[in-house]
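Long-time lurker, first post. I've been practising inverse folding by hand and with some scripts of my own, and I keep getting stuck on stretches where the structure tokens seem ambiguous. Below is the full token string for one chain I'm working on. Before anyone asks, I'm not after the true native sequence, just a reasonable design that respects the backbone. If someone could post their per-position residues I'd love to compare against what I wrote down in my notebook.
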């Protein structure tokens, strides 16, 4: 193997700066995906057919098309079609968040439907409004049950965030590629980026397990 990390080591701080961008994109995308996914999950179990159809169609479209296509449509298609000027950062958050919402909605829907029906029946018998029953009784139990699946989705989102390099976002992957193009040491710079992503995903998984143990305790 002909590897020379000595030529890349001085550029590690430059690559490391991309973690700020990566973390910002991932955290905002996770928040958007969770909030929108929760709303879609409620739509899917709703008695209103229009809402159920919308949520199902949304999930089908975003799960049935490539993430990179969705990113390209948001970044290149919206300005052309609607004249909306959108920069790399919000485009990345929108694409990742909207895509994640489709998967999160299915996870949360399954979690809600897995809660013992006796819980909702007891709440109805006590006269608890449906909205409060869902927010205070059903939803907390569902989240506790599906937390491992949610953490898995969010770790996948962290890895998938590297795709934003195709629209020029200055994340870890983009900076590693720039270092590779300047030094012609692509393997070395990409391996360093891989280490950064591995650490981020490992920390997120560790935090998720700690939270899971705390909730179960």
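-- Answer (accepted) --
I ran through it position by position. Result:
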């Amino acid at each position: 193997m002909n590897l020379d990390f000595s030529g890349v080591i001085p550029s590690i701080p430059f690559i490391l700066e991309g973690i700020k961008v990566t973390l910002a994109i991932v955290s905002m995308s996770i928040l958007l995906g969770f909030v929108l996914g929760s709303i879609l999950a409620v739509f899917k179990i709703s008695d209103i057919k229009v809402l159920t159809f919308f949520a199902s169609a949304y999930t089908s479209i975003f799960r049935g098309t490539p993430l990179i296509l969705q990113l390209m449509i948001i970044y290149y298609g919206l300005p052309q079609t609607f004249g909306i000027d959108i920069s790399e950062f919000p485009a990345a958050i929108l694409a990742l968040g909207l895509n994640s919402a489709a998967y999160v909605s299915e996870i949360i829907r399954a979690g809600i439907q897995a809660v013992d029906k006796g819980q909702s029946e007891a709440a109805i018998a006590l006269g608890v409004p449906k909205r409060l029953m869902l927010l205070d009784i059903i939803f907390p139990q569902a989240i506790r049950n599906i937390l491992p699946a949610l953490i898995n989705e969010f770790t996948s989102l962290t890895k998938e965030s590297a795709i934003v390099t195709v629209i020029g976002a200055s994340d870890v992957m983009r900076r590693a590629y720039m270092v590779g193009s300047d030094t012609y040491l692509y393997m070395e710079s990409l391996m360093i980026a891989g280490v950064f992503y591995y650490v981020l995903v490992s920390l997120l998984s560790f935090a998720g397990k700690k939270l899971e143990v705390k909730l179960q305790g």
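A couple of notes from the structure itself: The chain has a mean pLDDT of 89. The domain at 9-216 is CATH 1.10.3720.10 (MetI-like fold). Happy to go over any region you disagree with.
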